[in-house]
Write a structure and sequence with these properties.
Keywords: Membrane, Transmembrane, Transmembrane helix. By secondary structure, this protein is mainly alpha-helical. It is built from eleven helices and six strands.
């Protein structure tokens, strides 16, 4: 019993940043999707990620041949040769990538001091979100995997390695191709859950919160910032600068697009959004706008 408790406690305390990100994901996803869909995706996403890792360490697919070093097996939870926290991280990485893609392609409406994304069921389940979301997640791995591979030099510890040294700071290109495939499967799973998990009117857990549409992108940026900070901390300046260069243009493009799309939406966009999500804050803003137009007339 003491050993089990030690492992359970160690699973959290050895990787506190993972569980901080995971807790942030739960808040953002529940406010956005509701408890039911969040739970469904957490379980499904973990299983997909876990299956991909077990396959790769045993068969070399989809990430290429790599291995885990079980130095922490007695201190944290391992399942079939894979640390529990590792597959868990895929879940919040997928959601924040999906949420970022959704924000990028959705119209925006300003309501007093808030910005509301006029997303719709059609946009949530679109190929555009699938493509952008999966690519956003791959780009996260381009920053996180090289520094994670240097875990012996920071508090992560050396937990894995590749059988052959890869071309990108030791990471093989097969790893990123595998991440793109698995990321696409994870985003597709989230889209299927959003489509087929039925909810009674307003989903339980969905609530109004200031700038709620930006929670997932903010989590995405936090993951980037954390990994780049660790990269520079261990003295890998070239690796860190590469990550900065990789993200400078995408962040600039997305920022400019968001700023220039505020309140530049069609009436059809707002109508479709309110038809799909009648509880949206955009409904209140639309009501206030209608009252002001009646008074002025």
């Amino acid at each position: 019993m003491h050993d089990i408790l030690h492992i359970l406690v160690g699973t959290v305390t050895m990787r506190p940043y993972v569980f901080a990100f995971f807790a942030s994901y739960l808040v953002a996803a529940v406010l956005h999707l509701g408890w039911r869909k969040t739970i469904w995706f957490t379980v499904a996403g973990y299983l997909i990620a876990f299956a991909s890792e077990v396959s790769s360490i045993n068969n070399g697919f989809p990430y290429g041949w790599y291995y885990y070093i079980d130095t922490t097996r007695n201190d944290e939870l391992w399942i079939a040769g894979v640390p529990f926290f590792d597959s868990l991280s895929y879940v919040f990485l997928t959601y924040c990538s999906y949420g970022t893609a959704l924000l990028v392609i959705s119209p925006l409406k300003r309501i007093r001091r808030d910005l509301v994304s006029l997303e719709t069921h059609r946009l949530r389940r679109s190929f555009s979100v699938l493509l952008l979301g999966s690519l956003f997640q791959v780009f996260l791995d381009i920053v996180t995997d090289p520094v994670a591979l240097q875990g012996r030099r920071w508090f992560l510890g050396q937990i894995y390695g590749y059988r052959e040294v890869g071309t990108h700071f030791g990471v093989p290109l097969s790893n990123y191709l595998g991440w793109w495939l698995v990321s696409a499967l994870l985003v597709a799973a989230l889209q299927l859950i959003d489509r087929f998990v039925k909810e009674p009117e307003k989903p339980a857990g969905v609530a109004k919160a200031p700038y709620r549409s930006f929670y997932a992108p903010f989590l995405y940026l936090c993951v980037i910032a954390f990994n780049l900070a660790v990269t520079f901390y261990i003295g890998e300046k070239l690796m860190g600068l590469t990550g900065v260069f990789i993200y400078t243009l995408p962040i600039a493009i997305c920022s400019v697009l968001l700023v220039n799309r505020v309140n530049r939406y069609l009436k059809e966009d707002l109508a479709e959004h309110l038809s799909d999500f009648p509880w949206s804050p955009a409904a209140e803003g639309n009501l206030v706008q209608s009252r002001n137009q009646r008074r002025s007339s």
